[in-house]
């Protein structure tokens, strides 16, 4: 229907229009139609590739989820353990250099290793490096686990001492008194 309407517009000739002007208008309309058709074909190709990638992701998810769960079992919430064993899930071609557990004992060292790990597995960085679908999927899962690990680590390390030991703060005297349970 839209094509018929555009054809009618092309055939519409203004009587006062010169033949050159009419030809230029017709050529411009044809170029516009060609660009639109090309853009539509490119969009359809991108959509098809995205659908294929999504289907491949679902197929890989079944196999890779078991590997990620096996790697992370018992380490959920333990950022240091996750970082020290990261090489086992990422593989040698990821660019990750193993970090021994003894090197991430302090909070500063753990934070530094966490930053390096997130740079290695961040989804946007992988896109720039042209990673495979399998690498993208594994790194996405690892990135989520590292984020969850750092949240629980921060809560436990940076929480004030009076909240950890069961102390209650009295507002009137601004002192901490041990709670009796």
UniProtKB/TrEMBL annotation:
Example GO molecular function: clathrin binding
Instruction: Identify the domain of life.
Output: Eukaryota
One GO cellular component, as annotated: vesicle
What's the protein called, per UniProt? Answer: J domain-containing protein
Q: Which residues form a coiled coil?
A: 23-58
What keywords sit in the KW lines?
A: Coiled coil
Q: Which GO terms describe its biological process?
A: clathrin coat disassembly; clathrin-dependent endocytosis
